[in-house]
Amino acid sequence: MTPQHTGTVLELRGIGVSFGGLVALDDVSMTAATGTVVGVIGPNGAGKTTLFNVICGFVEPNTGSVLFEQKPLRPRPHQLAAKGIVRTLQGVGLFRGLTVLENVMAGATHTARAGLVSALLGLPRSDRDERRLRDEAMTLLDELGIAEHAQAWPGTLPYAVGKRVALARALVARPRLLLLDEPAGGLGGEDVDELAALIVDLPRRSDCSVMLVEHHMDLVMKVCDQIVVLDFGRVVASGTPAQVRDNPAVAEAYLGAEVGS
Ligand SMILES: Nc1ncnc2c1ncn2[C@@H]1O[C@H](COP(=O)(O)OP(=O)(O)OP(=O)(O)O)[C@@H](O)[C@H]1O
Ligand SMILES: [Mg+2]
C-alpha cells in the first residue's frame, strides 16, 4: 500500500524569528511532502526547536508564513490537534495519575470525534464513544508492541516504553502531521533501531506525515525522506539523506559547532 495523498503537507515561507537582538531563524523556507518523513537537523542553537515552536504557534514569527495542506495556518497551540497537527513533547510527558491506556485515551480528548456534542452540552462522553476510544487506544498500544503495559502506571515503565506510550497518545488523535521532538532522546542503540522501524512505517500505517528534530544521526539518516539542515538560523542544506551526507556545508556546520564549543 502506498500513501493516498500527494502534495505538500507543510510549507514554510521565509520564516524569520528574532529574540531581542538574536536572530534565531532567518528566511527559512522548506516544504514537507505529504506521506513522507522530514528531518530537521543542525548543531545546538541552530533554531530547530524554534522552528517547531513556530509551526505549533508557541512562537510568532516576525516574517514569513506557514501553510498547512496548502492553506495558511495561523497556529494556536490549543487548536492544533483539531486542525490535524500533533506534537510530542521532549522527554516522555505522561500523566502520572492515569494508566497507560488512559494516557493514550486522553490524547483524543481534543479531537472532535468522540463527544463534541456531549462536550458542548456538558454531558459525559457516551459509553459507546468511550468504548470505541478504548478499543482504538488498545489497538495502537498493540501496534506499537506495548499492549501488555496497558494497565501499568507510567512511573513504573522502562523509559523506552514510556516514549512509545507518548507516541500512541499522539497517534490516537489521528494527526495528519506529527511533529516529533527528539524522539530518540535518551534511548539506547537497540531501542533507537526499533523506534526507527516504527517511524518509517507511520506515513503508511497511520496515514500521517512526520517531521522530526533529532540529534541522533543514525535515526535521521535511516528514517527521513528529506532532511533540512539549519545552522545559525539559516537553511544551509536540504535534500535526501545521501545528498545531505555528502554536502560539505553540513560537515562545516557541525565542525564549526564542535570547534566553537
Ligand atoms: N525564548 C527564547 N528567548 C531568547 N532566545 C531564545 C529563545 N528560544 C531560543 N532562543 C535562542 O535562539 C537560538 C535557537 O535556539 P533553538 O532552541 O531553536 O535551537 P536548537 O537548534 O533547538 O538547539 P538544540 O539542538 O540545542 O536544542 C539559540 O541561540 C537560543 O538561545
Ligand atoms: Mg532544541
From TrEMBL:
It comes from the Bacteria. The keyword Aminoacyl-tRNA synthetase does not apply. Keywords: ATP-binding, Nucleotide-binding, Transport. The keyword Protease does not apply. CDD domains: ABC_Mj1267_LivG_branched (cd03219). PROSITE patterns: ABC_TRANSPORTER_2. PANTHER family: ABC TRANSPORTER ATP-BINDING PROTEIN, CONSERVED COMPONENT OF ABC TRANSPORTER FOR NATURAL AMINO ACIDS-RELATED. GO terms for cellular component: plasma membrane. SUPFAM superfamilies: P-loop containing nucleoside triphosphate hydrolases. This is Amino acid/amide ABC transporter ATP-binding protein 1, HAAT family. GO terms for molecular function: ATP binding; ATP hydrolysis activity. Residues 10-257 form the ABC transporter domain. It holds the Pfam family BCA_ABC_TP_C.
